[in-house]
Model the fold of this input.
Amino acid sequence: MSASPLKSLLALAIGASAVLAGCKPAAEPAPAQPAATVASAATPAAPVAHVSRTARLQAFLTARYGKAARLSEQWRGQWTQDDESRPTDLQVCAEQPVVSGDSWQQLLAVCGELVDGGHADPGTIDFYVLRPSGDSFEVAAELTGGTYGSSGRPGTVQVIRAGSDFYGFRNESGWYGQGYSLETQTLILPGPKGLVDAGSLRSHIDNSAAYDCDDADFAEECRTRMFNIAFAYRFDDSDRSARTWPLVIEETGSGCGGKPVRAEHRFTLDAKTWTYTFPEALQRESCQ
Done:
């Protein structure tokens, strides 16, 4: 074969290779560069390590409560009031991430139970709204050192949604004695200047086990004073886009002498005081 046809074939082969190379899928990795080229290229910066929400919470607890603090376990601490420190068992009693506008926040409650609490002693709760900052959390709002409950126990805490992107806490605690039960619910909500106690009312009252009814001489009279009433709460979210939703209290049960009780109460959060105004009837200790 002459030199001229050979050159033509070689040119065609090179052209075909170029076309095939141009048709490779985009996902296919590029050929390895020569060692000298790789060595001369700038080394990319290492990616920033992702810090989980759990790790951020643990770091916050350690910073606030010391090395003994644990996200999922109880730890021993101290609670100080009126210059007196008392041993207290602490634990996270509520935590939940929530959406706030175009970002998110972390709600956290830490409950404390007095180790040697007497019947009249309350427990304590610290409430926090945290926001992500870099690889940690910073405090957006807090309400700490509050007292709730009895017998050294603070009751239970849950995160509640009270508006379109408006979240807070509900504490339920009780006092029990001589066959009477007085249970109270307290709402902790974020106000313009931080978390506030937005108001308290009963969640349940009854005297179904009253000691004085054991006395035969007073049993009949006692039965006319028996009561068992629940005060269930809910937020009316019919207008899902509203900043705050109306609070509805459903009062049901039996009043004095077994009289049926059924009533609905509606409340709006006061924009000036950032609280609810609950009537005395919803904070009573006995039948009306």
